[in-house]
Each structure stands twice: as structure tokens, then as C-alpha cells.
Write a structure and sequence with these properties.
The protein is of the alpha/beta class. It has helices at 2-21, 30-42, 52-58, 80-89, 98-101, 105-110, 139-147, 164-178, 191-195, 235-251, 271-283, 378-382, 395-405, 408-412, and strands at 66-76, 113-118, 152-154, 183-185, 187-188, 198-202, 205-213, 228-229, 254-260, 287-291, 299-303, 309-313, 318-320, 330-340, 347-362, 366-372, 414-415. The strands form three sheets. Strands 1, 2, 3, 4, 13, 14, 15, 16 and 17 form a nine-stranded mixed beta sheet that branches.
Length: 417
């Protein structure tokens, strides 16, 4: 995203330069500009004609279709080996997560909008902690923001209360105060904050971002806390969710819902996931980004009640982790583009694909780092620490799993009409 802004600024500078070549000033009329062009043309030895191309350069540019490319990743699950390695790499007593993300950082930077499920809280006053009650070092945020360029973080998940209500309060304040440009979803300071739906406009298209979790590991907020975790556990919760989605739909061209749901280690969505996906998309959600099972689940489209095509990734699996099972180390990034074809027209999903990612570690969970599958090799797979338990771990293992769970269509990329 930041690179994109630099390109945009360079483009604007170029546009200004073109204007100054013509010597155009704010007060000049079109006739004066035309006269300038004509006098410039008369300098040349070619006979001058009232040609179209030059004058059309100065008229209003024709409307071009607007497109935005987004990428959404699954669980950023920071186990102890990840922050211990980061501490060992740091030269200033902090945590250097650079090596963990460096192979995928450009991929996320190049997208217009990048989203992630930040599974672990950051409560800066407390020491880092691993499973079952995670807490991650504040330095992690720098790498998510500056190195990878994530624009949206979902905070609603089963670990959001790992450090209690006060830890969650600290976490919300941390993101708000230190990374105000990152939008956070699913957990809010209070009801008013929840009602303030997070939106972002890129290339003339407005996006609304929502988040929710079905689970909080049996933990609940302190009864005197104002914090709101978006959940839809009963009829009243479902009605509130519907109101929120309909409001987001009014505010934005595209509504994106992060949802933490389903059964861990299951490659198949539950009936509840299917029911919620149907309800949420019928109410106005365009893209459902699912996570929590730690493994991949199918990516599919469905026609909504009002005839839109919605995109659902039931589970993107882990983005990074130090989990022990081979299938937990194969995740996916949903890579999708939305387009407004005609001026004032509807925005639709124009293409999507699932970009597989592999979390690699050497033996003993050392040197964790993430790769796009495109960059992963059999040579790397042969040195993966997971081979101590899964001797068959290889590109063909990964490919079989992907074909079985996700299918060839989403893996190859789908263009929608
Ligand atoms: Zn989870």
C-alpha cells in the first residue's frame, strides 16, 4: 500500500510537469490554452491543422474502470519460538520479526489493501506469552505495519481475552495510539466505537471492514467493562449483526467480514459456518474472510438473495505459527480484485484466487519463516523440521492437500463475468 502511494505521488508529479510544459495556469481559459497550442504548432514547418489528439489531451479524461486488489491472510499465531527467535535476532534488546515475514512482505505491500487476523493480543505492560494464553511483544506491530503493510487487522478471535479484559483494553489502546492508520475490527472500546464502522476508500471504491468471533475459549469480559466483542451467539446477537452489516452496506461499495469460526483442524465447514455465510452475505457482506481452524477450508462463491456474487473463504488456515502438524503449516492468502466497470455503477468481484503459503522451520522449530508456495522448493521441504513427524512432507504433499481441500479452480485463479 505504501509503495502504491509513492507511485501515485510520482504520477501526480508527472501530471504537474506535463501541465507546466504547456504553460497552463489556473486562470487560463480553454480558448487561451488552444491558442497556445496553435502558436506552438505554427512554429513547426508542418502545415498546422485543427487536430484532435492535442486538444483531447487537455479535455476531461475519459472515465476508466476502477479496480482495487486486496489480499487477506489467516491467523498470525505468535508462539514462543517465534518471539524467542525475534529476541535473539534483535540488536537493541527488542524483537526483530523481519526474517519471519521478509519472503512475503513485498507481496502484501504490492496489494492496494492487505488484511490479517491478528490472533494474539499485544498487552505491552506484560511479558510475552505463548499457548494457551498468548501475549505478543509490541515490536511485532512494526513488522506488520511497516514491513508487510497490513491495513486492516481483525482482533476478534478465541484468544482475544487471553490476557483478560485489562489486557484487551491495553491491546486496543496500543493499536489506536501507535498505529492509528491501521483499521482494527471485531473488538471495540465501547458501543459507540463499534458503531463507528471502519471504512477505507481506494481508487474511488469504498470498503467497510467488520469482524466477529464465534468463540472466546470460555472467557468473558469483566461485567463492568465497556469493551464490545462482536459475536452473534443468540437471536439478539444475530439481529445486531444484521443491523451492523446493513449499516456497513449503506456506507460502502464493498463489505468485508472477518469471522473466526468453525472446528479446529477440520477441512470442512460446519453447518453453522454455512448458515452464517449465507445470512451475512444475504444481509450485505460481499466477502467473508474465515479463520480459526488452523487449516484450510474451501473457497467458494454464492449468489445472494439480491443477486450479487459473494466470495467466501471458510478458513485461510494459519498465516504463521509454530504448530507441529504438517497440515497446519499450509495456509492461504485470498487474493481478490473488485471492479467498478461503469461510472456510477455497482462494484463487483472481478477475480479471485487462493495464494498458498508455507510456514517453514528448521528442526526444533528454529528459524521460522513464511514463503509463498510459488517460492517454496522441494529442497526447502526436505529440510523442514516437520519432517521429524511427517516424513512425506514435500511439494507433492502440499499439492495433494491443496487439491483435496481447495480444489484446482481457486488455486488457478477465477475470473468472474
Ligand atoms: Zn483461533
Amino acid at each position: 500500500m505504501k509503495k502504491f502511494l509513492i507511485v501515485l505521488i510520482a504520477g501526480l508529479a508527472a501530471a504537474v510537469a506535463v501541465q507546466s510544459v504547456w504553460g497552463m495556469t489556473a486562470g487560463e481559459t480553454e480558448a487561451e490554452i488552444q491558442a497556445t497550442i496553435d502558436s506552438q504548432q505554427s512554429d513547426s514547418s508542418e502545415p498546422s491543422e485543427p487536430e484532435q489528439p492535442e486538444s483531447s489531451e487537455l479535455s476531461e479524461p475519459e472515465w476508466q474502470p476502477q479496480t482495487v486488489r486486496l489480499v487477506s491472510a489467516g491467523d498470525n499465531l505468535i508462539h514462543s519460538s517465534l518471539y524467542e527467535q525475534a529476541a535473539a535476532r534483535s540488536t537493541d534488546g527488542g524483537y526483530d520479526f523481519g526474517a519471519l515475514y521478509e519472503n512475503v512482505a513485498d507481496y502484501f505491500q504490492e496489494a492496494d489493501i492487505a488484511t490479517l487476523n491478528q490472533e494474539t493480543v499485544i498487552a505491552p505492560s506484560r511479558a510475552p506469552a505463548t499457548y494457551p494464553c498468548f501475549n505478543s511483544p509490541p515490536d511485532l506491530a512494526y513488522y506488520l505495519d511497516t514491513q508487510c503493510g497490513f491495513d486492516v487487522l481483525n482482533l476478534a478471535n478465541n484468544h482475544c481475552l487471553d490476557q483478560g479484559t485489562s489486557g484487551l483494553e491495553e491491546c486496543l489502546t496500543f493499536w489506536e495510539e501507535n498505529y492509528p492508520d491501521i483499521l482494527t475490527t471485531g473488538v471495540y472500546q465501547n458501543a459507540e466505537d463499534e458503531a463507528n464502522i471502519r471504512t477505507k476508500e481506494v481508487n474511488g471504491i469504498t470498503f467497510a471492514f467488520l469482524g466477529m468471533t464465534e468463540l472466546t475459549n470460555g472467557l468473558s469480559l469483566a461485567s463492568d467493562s465497556d469493551i464490545v466483542i462482536t459475536q452473534a451467539l443468540d437471536d439478539a446477537g444475530m439481529e445486531e449483526l444484521r443491523t451492523q452489516i446493513e449499516k456497513a452496506d449503506e456506507l460502502a461499495d464493498v463489505v468485508i467480514m472477518n469471522v473466526h469460526w468453525g472446528n479446529e483442524y477440520s477441512f470442512t465447514p460446519t453447518e453453522r459456518q454455512e448458515y452464517l455465510a449465507q445470512q451475512m452475505t444475504d444481509w450485505g457482506v460481499d466477502i467473508v474472510i474465515g479463520h480459526h481452524p488452523h487449516v484450510l477450508q474451501p473457497v467458494e462463491t454464492r449468489e445472494t438473495a439480491d443477486g450479487r456474487t459473494a466470495l467466501i473463504a471458510y478458513s485461510l488456515g494459519n498465516f504463521v505459527s509454530a504448530q507441529a502438524d504438517a497440515y497446519c503449516l499450509i495456509g492461504g492468502v485470498l487474493d481478490y480484485t473488485v471492479t467498478r466497470q461503469e461510472e456510477g455503477g455497482e462494484v463487483t468481484i472481478s477475480s479471485y484466487s487462493l495464494e498458498p503459503v508455507v510456514t517453514h522451520y528448521d528442526s526444533g522449530y528454529q528459524n521460522n519463516r513464511i514463503y509463498l508456495l510459488d517460492d517454496y522448493t522441494d529442497e526447502l521441504a526436505s529440510t523442514h523440521g516437520v519432517r521429524a513427524r511427517y516424513s512425506s512432507f514435500s511439494l507433492s504433499y502440499i499439492d495433494s492437500l491443496l487439491q483435496e481441500v481447495v480444489g484446482s479452480e481457486a488455486l488457478a485463479g477465477v475470473t468472474l463475468p
